Structure formats: C-alpha cells, structure tokens
Amino acid sequence: MKVAITCDHIIERKPVHRLIELACSMFPEATIYTLAHIPGKVLGQIEMQSIRSSFLSNIVKTEAEFRKKSYLIPVAAKKLSVPCRFDLIINFSSGFSHGISHCEKTSVLNYFFSNDLNLPAKNFSEKLFKSYLRSWAKKKKDSYSHKVQSHENVVPGLEVVRPFYNFEDFPFHENPPTGNIALINSGFLSPNELQKLTDQLIDQDLKVVILGEESGINGAEYLKNTCSGELTPLFEQAVVVVEGNDKTFPEFALSSFASGRSIWVKRSGISQSFLGSDLPHFFDSVLDIKSNVASEQKRSKYRDHAARYSQLLFKTGLMRQLKNMGHPYRPQK
C-alpha cells in the first residue's frame, strides 16, 4: 500500500509534528506533502522521509510568515497535488492541509489537530483574508467523509482520537511543592495580563518564572525553548502554575498534571475539552489566581488524566480508523 502523509507545514516544530513522526515510523516509505518546508527546521524522522512542498517554501521562513502569506494557501494547496499512485493519504491538518489536491479515488483519513484560523490575527493581511480562508477551509473540510479530531471542539460531532505527548518525561511528585516559584506559560495572555499577574504573585513573595520570549514584564524571569529536563525541577518547586494557552493543545498544562501539580488555566472550550472541567482551576481574570496546593488524592488524578494522552492510545486509535476505512495497518518489514 502506497501512503502519503500531508500536513500544513514543516518550518517550526509544533506539537502536531510528534503525531506526524509516529505516522512516518508506521509507514517509513511514505512521502510527505506539505504546504511549506524549510529543510533542517524539524529534525528527526520527518526529515528522513521524501518531502514535497508548494511554492510557499520559497517565500516563507517562519510560521509567522506562513500565516502572513496565508491568503496564498488555497492556490498553493491546489497546485500541490498528491499523485493518483497513492492508495491512502493520512492528513494532519491545523486548518489548511486538508485543502491539498488529490485524486478522488484515493482514500483520505483527515485528522483535525487544531484550527489555526481561530488564533488571533497578528497582522492586517491575516485579518483581511480570514473570512475568505475560513470559507475555503470549511468547504474543503465538508467534502471529506472520514474525519476525526483531537478534541471535541475542532469539528463538533466528530469522533475524538486524543493526540499524545511524552508525559513519561515528567516524574510524578508525590509531595507538595518545595519552593516558592510561580511558573507561567504565557500562551495567549496579553502583556497587561502578564504584568498584573506578576505583580500580584510577587506581592505573595513568589519568584515568577515566565516561559516564552521576553516581553518586558517587570520582576519576572524568562525561560524559553524549555525541555522536560528544565521543567521538572520547576514543577517540583512551583506553588502556582499558570497555563495561558487556551487555544491550542495545552501541552504545558498536561505536563503539570503528569508532575502531579495543580494548575490555573485560562477558561475556554478547548482547554476544558483537553483537561476536563473538574481538574484544573479555570480563570477568566488573572486577578483570580492564587496559591493552591493539591491534595495527595488530586495529585494522583492529575497523573491519571495526563496518561490518557499516551502514544500507545493514539497509535491504537489511528490503527482503528485505518481498519474502519478498509486499510488495516500491517507493519512494514
């Protein structure tokens, strides 16, 4: 069986690339078709595949530029056609790649990871063409019969196959926090929100550490490009953990859960879909956030919830979908 894997871009590492890597390991002979590819930006299994991309690869170098030029995506997707020699396409879409052209006879499994068209527009061109792109993306999405999603709010009514992340990288802390750290993933919090939050946490005699690019917040320390080895000791010491990402896969919040730590999360349908409605402390205003150390029973529940996002469960779900489509997975020798 000849398999193609399609995705939005391979220009900056995102959580969805972990899923693509797993698909590549399952189908090592698969060819990847993507709207934009910058060689060497996403290392590992993906770069070992044969990769085809559109003309966008010549004009964008970052995800920000990809979004700025998003008005070109419908044309790029039409010209980047997956040949008819493929029996199966596994598509991982964050809003765009399900528009890549292909033969009608080719089976397509669409995995809708997220809808990046719902992210805040960062420039004029994004705002200007957003409604046009939404209409185009919806039309393409409605044309497919086999669709699944990462959580309930991507495409209401579709079956959910949970994505995975390496929660095993985070050791479970059985005891309460040992330090005085407030750990914040800035996510989509505004500079004004971050400054208010930092000020009130400092007033509680806490050391504020913000994950992400430095944004001029007075009194805070910054940590960017974090890995599990850097986060593990911070989770051990943190008496306050805050997730500001309410629009995409909340990997940071799940890492906190895996560590047995409670977390404050910006309220949204997406964050509640991934994290449940009873485990996190949701906030609408940063002024609501305060210290909150979880009980031993709660810490165990956090870890159990994080374990739902395992690689084995995702792979099993993917294999089940392929079987339902008449393409049962058989490991390639």
Tally of distinct domains: 2
Pick out the low-confidence regions.
Answer: none
Q: How would you classify the helix and strand content by structural class?
A: alpha/beta
CATH level 1 name of the largest domain: Alpha Beta
Q: What is the N-to-C order of secondary-structure elements (H for helix, E for strand)? A: EHEEHHEEHEEEHEEHEHEHEHH
Q: What is Rg?
A: 21 Å
- Overall geometry: globular
Please report which band the strand proportion falls in: under 5%, 5-15%, 15-25%, 25-35%, 35-45% or over 45%: 15-25%
Give a written overview of the molecule.
With 333 residues, the protein is of the alpha/beta class. The chain folds into 2 domains: 3-164 and 311-324, Rossmann fold, CATH 3.40.50; 167-306, Glycogen Phosphorylase B (Rossmann fold). Helix content is 32%, strand content 18%. The chain is built from 10 helices and 13 strands. It has helices at residues 15-26, 63-68, 73-79, 124-142, 191-202, 228-237, 251-258, 269-275, 296-306, 311-324; strands at 3-10, 31-37, 50-53, 88-93, 107-112, 147-149, 159-160, 181-185, 207-211, 221-223, 238-243, 264-266, 281-283. The strands form 2 sheets. The chain has a 7-stranded parallel β-sheet with strand order 3-2-1-4-5-6-7, with helices on both faces. Strand 1 (3-10), helix 1 (15-26) and strand 2 form a beta-alpha-beta unit. The mean pLDDT is 93.
Feature tags:
32% helix, Rossmann fold, 6-stranded parallel beta sheet, 333 residues, 10 helices, 2 domains, alpha/beta, 7-stranded parallel beta sheet
Brief sketch in words of this structure:
The chain is α/β, with parallel strands linked by helices and 333 residues long. It folds into 2 domains: 3-164 and 311-324, Rossmann fold (3-Layer(aba) Sandwich); 167-306, Glycogen Phosphorylase B (Rossmann fold).
